[in-house]
Specification:
Blueprint (H helix, E strand, L loop, with lengths): L1 H6 L4 H30 L7 E2 L2 H13 L3 E6 L8 E10 L3 E6 L13 E8 L9 E14 L5 E5 L5 E4 L14 E8 H6 L15 E3 L8 E6 L3 E6 L1 H5 L10 E8 L8 E13 L2 H4 L2 E12 L9 E4 L5 H18 L2
Antiparallel strand pairs: 1-8, 2-3, 2-5, 3-4, 4-7, 5-6, 6-7, 6-8, 9-10, 9-13, 11-12, 12-15, 13-14, 14-15, 15-16
Amino acid sequence: MLDSTTSGHFSPEATILMVAIFGTFALFLTAGFVIKIRFHNSEFYPITWIVKPGEIRALLDTALTQRSKMRVSFVRDDPGARSTDSTLLSVNPRKGIELEMTSLVRANTTWVGKLVACDFRLRLDPRKDYQSFYNFVSPVLAVKKASDDFIHMTVAWPTRLELEQKRGFLRIEPQRSSILLADVWHESTIKAARGRFDFPATWGPPLLHMDPEIEFPALEVRNISGGGLRLEILPEALRKQHELFAPGGRFIAHLILAEPEAEKPTEFYLAMRLQNAYGDPVETGIKAFGFRIITFGEPGETPTAPMSWKNATTGVPALDDWTFRRHLSLYRLRGE
């Protein structure tokens, strides 16, 4: 190429070589521009995002079919912002998602336009006891009170769903040997005893008690998660205080759970709200209650220091970890 240029004579070989070099350079340059344009016009999403309209519609239709509850909370900087459960009434890409909430929720038209975070879960494979958790954020479109005083709220159709795994929803049925102690108080009995909620020693005798020394306890812990408990109670224990076990009632539980991996067991103080009641004591001899954990107690820096209560909006981290470890140990025992 240099000889051909300096001599001023035409060289076919040099011409072919120059065309090949500059042609290749132009090809790479063009390809770079094309790739840049395509990357600029397309968006890259995390693998946990569902953005295809058809997939979003299919998942929300499945949630409606499975009657999945949707947990709703305002989008705020405060992680302790309260949330409430709602029921799906309808899903429509043009009209939005209509939710029904209990009349206890103080909803009003000032909610319109505000952003809410919605969480729900689905069991996509009926053959497996595994649930997937989804979240989306949308503005409120409308709020109205139905004829039955229930609140109907419509939120905008989401542009994406985010797949998430909340271990706080992971429930296990613990072995009885794992529950070293379970005491339950109703908050009204603590107040009647002039007890202080930050000093457990002042709460008086528990309403219900269970420990390994009792062969037939009035209380059994049937399942447990970082976000709630399900307790079974014998009718004899309910007769005297049955009026306390009404939906919405507030209770405090003291649990001591075996921790095979550690040198000592794990202790929990949980403030709970009674959410659901199951079973008929007349037919089955027992009745079960589902409790949602609202706050959890943390001991003070010294034995005489008061206990502090922390919000459990996303579950109790230590109880969540304990549940997860028990879940793994059960899988190991089964050889899975």
